[in-house]
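pasting input
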Amino acid sequence: MKEILLEHVYFEKNGRTILEDISFEVETAKFIFLVGPTGAGKSSLLKLIYIEEYPTRGNMKVMGYDTRKINKKTLLVVRKNLGIVFQELNLLNDRTAYDNVALPLEIDRRHDVGKKVHDTLRRLGILHKASSYVYSLSRGEQQKIAIARAIVRGPKILIADEPTAHIYKSEKEGIIKMFMELNAQGTTCIIATHDNYIVDMVPYATVIHIEDGRVNLL
Amino acid sequence: MRVGFFFGEVKRLYHDAFASLVFIGITAIFMSVLLNLVIGGYVYVGNVTRRNSTYLKARVYLKEGTPQPIKNVFSLMLRYNPYVDSIKFIDKKKAKTEFENNFPKFGDLIKLFESNPLPENYEVYLNYRLLNAKKLNELTKDIQRFDFVDEVYPQGLFVFKLYALEKVVYFILVSFIIIFFFILSMITRGSIKSSVEKKKDLIKVYWLLGGNTEDLIGPFQVAGVVAGFIGSILSSLIFYLVFKFFMIPTWMLLISPILTVFIVIIVIREVIELSIN
């Protein structure tokens, strides 16, 4: 099943063309790396996928829904199936690590919030930081909180924008392995990075190279 | 959203946007004080007008020897006049009793006459809502036209002034309710906008994580409603004894809290929906 489909997608912002004639599709449970230099359009492409932005032209479907025609209700349903690690993290600094990770579960009205959050934080090795306020954590720890928040729901599609940017090399492997485990369980992973070290860790991944807003499938 | 989490968000709002919420509360107090004053004033003037409405009447004195059939037709005519609420026929005997009751010292005066000199008359109770001084004058002249009518004396014209005052206070009340809506909604809008600005990160994350609008709006509405309700109910409590003293129904003190809650709920929804879209 095609989880994501882009056909001749263009994206312009403030009169500037950011993505140009992008076409590719992502099957369920695929592992995709979006690689390319800074400013190539990776983050914009991810924003189109998690429907924060909309394509200017072209046909784009996420989980079978046309993103340009999607209504509010369906948008929420789609977003509940996405796990997103934002480039700017978008953590709530005035809340604890626990509160941040619990947020998606609270939105879903889940009753196993405590257990799920603790399991996820333990998996990322930051359970001891559960009650720490986000502003007091290092950038690397904050990055892990953002990853924990993205995976705590067990999403159908994991979208991560530079998820290992501020993480020590020794810990990157653990995080990518965790993504691979999720992928093995059926989660589609789309990771934007310019870190070849993590790309090499997943030999079966499809690598999409973006440069100057255009795509090259490698 | 679970109940515990929901109220956690409300608590956070009180922590983060305390000044804005207090401002809503204080505005609600002032506006409710004024609204209760106007409501109380309107009801009080209305009560005074109604209580005095029986003073507005006309005494219609009949000439001596008016035949019974004419009196019957005249009674019907008066009864079906739109300006007349009710009529009371005072025969000679009742007129005498009335005179003796009203002027006990001069009761013996009537004995000087061979027969009872007091005329039969009608007490015509008038509708103060339909009449005014000009119409009453015309009505008096119309009644006076009949040959069997001796004199017509209108009484209690001050009721018209009371009713005019009631209408003025009613106009003030309606205007004030509009002003109440406007000021409270403007201040709530301003306060909530600044709170929403502070919570911009939360709203963005919430939205991107698939939180629905209701979940976002809910805590803001509860926080705003509590602030506004406390403010307006405080004003109503202040007015409780005043309303009791002036015999104004105390349930009317619920008008300002209900209006406040209504305004706050609508305005907060509007502000947050705008900020999301």
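fyi Chain A has a mean pLDDT of 91.
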